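Recap from last week: sequence in, structure out.
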Amino acid sequence: MKIRISQAAQELGVSVDTLRRWEAAGKIQAERTPGGHRRYDLAQLRGIVPRQAPSQRLTLAYARVSSHDQQSDLVTQVALLESFCSANGWTYEVLQDLGSGLNYQKRGLRQLIQRICAGEVGRLVLTHQDRLLRFGSELIFALCAEFGVEVVIINRSEPPASFEEELVQDVLEIITVFSARLSVGGSRSQAQPPAGKNRQLIETLREAAQEL
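Predicted structure tokens:
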């Protein structure tokens, strides 16, 4: 059965522009009518991603805190997400992570990305945008747009109660990473005076962050 591009996009839960990119990349094939319109083979499309429309897919809610000291905040986030999803009548799962907002390798985040790409997710729900990542959440949102995933952020304006504390922890993590790299670089280099100045700067930044 041959279908139009708008029908194919609805079938896969992606945008029309995404279908055009997939065709240009050779991922899918389209026939052309005498008038130049695209026609897609329905059986081929169903072999690419699950057939479910976005409204029929699962809602995934995601909660994250940076440290074990914030376990109570994680419990609060999960409760809010569950209450919000239940109130809207959505079929949902909650993924949780305990780790820095700068860490892209967290298990829950990786699972979230994999399930979006597999076409299982129709909606992503967050309490705040930075629960996803401190920097780079726009990349995940772009991925959601690519696969037709609706993004719902419950609190778009107010920061979470632990915002300042988590920001300090993320800054300390950056300082720790640079300090470790500096130590490795210093052991391989004879340029000790510049390295010493850099270490002094890093320690000053570390002390300032801890004072916050």
